[in-house]
Amino acid sequence: MASLEDYKDFAGADAVDELRLLAQRLRGRTLLHVNSTAVGGGVAEILNRMVPLFNELEMPARWEVMKGGEEFYAATKKFHNALHGDPHGASPRDFQAYEEATDENLKGLALDSDFVFIHDPQPAALVKKRGELKNRWLWRCHIDLSHADPGVWGFLRPYVERYDACVISSPAFAQTLSIPQMLVAPSIDPLSDKNRDLDDAEVRLILERLKIPLDKPLVTQVSRFDRLKDPLGVIRAFRSIQKSVRARLLLVGGSADDDPEGAQVYREALDAAGSDEDILVLSLPPTSHLEINAIQRASAVILQKSLREGFGLTVSEALWKGKPVIAGAVGGIPQQIMHRRSGVLVHSIEGAAYWMRQLLQQPDFARRLGQNGREHVRRNFLLTRHLRDYLLLFLSAENRGSDFIRL
Amino acid sequence: MALPLAKKPFRFFTRLSLTAAAGVRAADLRELLEGIKVVPDSVLYTHTHRFIQQFQFLVPEPANDFAGWAVSALQDELAGERLSAIDTVRYGTIGELRQALTAVLEDHLKARPVPRTAPPGEEFHFQRSIRFSLPTPYEARDLREFHDLLRKVSVASLYLHVFEARLRPPLGVNDFSLWFERDLGEDELADRVAHLDPYSHTHEALKDGILRMVADRLGELDRG
Questions:
Q1: Which of A10, B27, B67, B110 sits CB 3.0–4.6 Å from B83 for a disulfide?
Q2: CA atoms of B62 and B55, how far apart (whole Å)
Q3: Would you tell me which residues 292-351 of chain A have a C-beta closer than 8 angstroms to some C-beta of chain B?
């Protein structure tokens, strides 16, 4: 397991020293994270890395996973979709199943840590218990709430307002709430398989295994096969520049086996690619972190032409590899890319096509964007910054109401 | 050679901040102007000072959040240019900075009374900063210790002592120059550091520049 020392090479010794300095002000305070899954998904990935680092900083940290039956998970899946804007909402029985699972978990969970950090809607109602406790409660919402269904949000909101603060990833996700809404962006881990350094030989070997030829510059979009990632728009943009550039397009995404719509979009992308050997559509298992890392490193240009996005952390992953990125100006992407300085923001298929051609034909400019992008990620989107923001969050919860805190 | 001890040691502090949604947003320059007029100082701090800290590695350095938004979301190059020309750290107080931003926007809107609207999803969201001031363990008693410790401190600390210091009395003076002059009697060094242009450097390069000036002075003192 990585220790804080291991991050000095990436974040800088000063950033790690600052974490230790801050943590001194919280030494001995206990911390409990609660989410709803131990494996899979970005939250579990982050907690796996973060909990040991909090312990190293002498903040004894635990991580509990909420338990629930099929009915609970079916209800929370509906909640999740409704908070993302799905108008189908949830039924009275769903709300009841949610309450029942919450009460069941409250019987077994020890929630008396100094800070209780609840992740996402599934365990949000555990806050019912806080009246009996004298500790601080924080709710981390990883979902874009800007189009939330009023029924589901109306049900959750009274719970959310019992927390000391809620934490969101982007200012665009903010709601009208009686509690502070802190902005903490997610992060990437430079030591994970998805982001760690790979040498050229390793990259070549992986691409050979995946049968991805490297005889032409690769323009790549890494994302699941989802209409909101606009894979067909990417193919149209690439087709429009094929006469003036020598390049190959690669669309790579997670396996679509468990997602009927994903399978449909994957087939549509294959159809759109047709027999063109310069357009590759590849589906990989969700555990292919090293493969994705190698593909990103082998690419000349990376796209994330989303039409709608949560935070879009794949942008930071690509920038971390020093790649020029062309991305839709939606969700959290503008936080990661400053247009024409650390990447390119686009609003249309034509815009994506124009910039693909520009970046392929102007490698010096493309390289500069990549370098700036990597530095922006190094300063703002690594795990160490995330950890620092959480330490500051705990300190602000202890000094609620103050905009200037002397430590 | 033993160096003269300072009248008072220099303690390095660091400045960290956490942002929060301010609950105000703007879809065009008129709404931006209304927002700038009413939001608390901690909000303007976020979009100017904190912004500089976040993007200072870019050369030339982008000026402030407002200018960037005017160009990227509103495609209003003229407003972007005029807002970029507002030099954040030249203003002694956030109030003066607010006046400058307001004046530029009011003037711009006189000439273009129907401002462009941002596409849905690209509105400007005002944010406030919760600032933390934290003493580091580093304390310099003479110029050599100062040099060695400056190498160790973070760019956040440098920002606090060089840029934000100008917002505190004595206004317009950075903490390093003040200490060199008041506690070490190093008037010339104080003057040279005060004249470094923080905008023509990344923070790392600025730090290197100060380190070089201090090292040169140490060399002179060693040679007697």
A1: B67
A2: 7
A3: 329-331, 334, 338-339, 341-342, 345, 347
- Check if A22 contacts B (Cβ < 8 Å): yes
- Least CB–CB distance from A14: residue in B18, B126, B152: B152
When scoring B130, B136, B138 by the number of chain A Cβ atoms within 10 A, the one with the most, hence best to mutate, is B130
Q: What is the mean pLDDT of each run of 10 residues along chain B (224 residues)?
A: 90 93 95 97 90 78 90 92 89 89 97 90 92 92 96 87 78 89 96 79 85 96 87
Tally of domains in chain B? 2
- Give CB contacts under 8 A, 24+ apart, made by B65-69: B65/B124, B66/B32, B66/B36, B66/B101, B66/B124, B68/A338, B69/B32, B69/B118, B69/B124
**Is A393:A138 a contact under the CB 8 Å cutoff?**
yes
Residue B3 domain flag: no
The helix, strand and coil proportions of chain A, stated in percent and rounded to the nearest 5, come to 50, 15, 35
**Beta carbons within 8 Å of B208's beta carbon, 6+ residues apart:** none
Considering the domain architecture, whether residues B115 and B146 belong to the same structural domain is answered as no
Do B109 and B174 belong together in one domain? no
What kind of architecture, by CATH, is found in domain A200-380? 3-Layer(aba) Sandwich (3.40)
DSSP reduced 3-state for A166: strand
ipTM of this model?
0.85
Domain with CATH 3.40.50.2000 in chain A: 4-187+382-398, 200-380
Which structural domain range is residue B180 located in? 10-14+135-223
